[in-house]
Amino acid sequence: MSENEKQWKRPVGFVWTIEDLARELKISVRNVYRLTSQDKIPFSKIGKSVRFSPDQIEEWLRRGGTK
Asked: 34, 45 in Cβ contact below 8 A?
């Protein structure tokens, strides 16, 4: 399986926090905050918390991320 075809195993309804996403993408938490503040990455807000759907992130990466 190529890097672009990587599929994360996760339960249905599972979401990532900013820290989870930073760890999965191997980028800094600060960079994740920057991407969300510039609306360059798909995210949802639950109250004041920011959450990420692994499925949406996987699709976003397939389409080239921030390119």
From this structure: no
Residues 20-56: pLDDT tens digits?
999 999 999 999 999 999 999 999 998 999 999 999 9
| Contact in structure between 61 and 29 (CB atoms under 8 Å) | no
CATH of domain 13-62: 3.90.105
Which residue is it, tokens 């930073």? 22
Q: What angle do CA 35, 3, 44 make, to 5 degrees?
A: 30
Classify burial at 56, counting beta carbons within 10 Å of its beta carbon; exposed 0-12, middle 13-18, buried 19 or more: middle
Token couple for 60: 């976003």
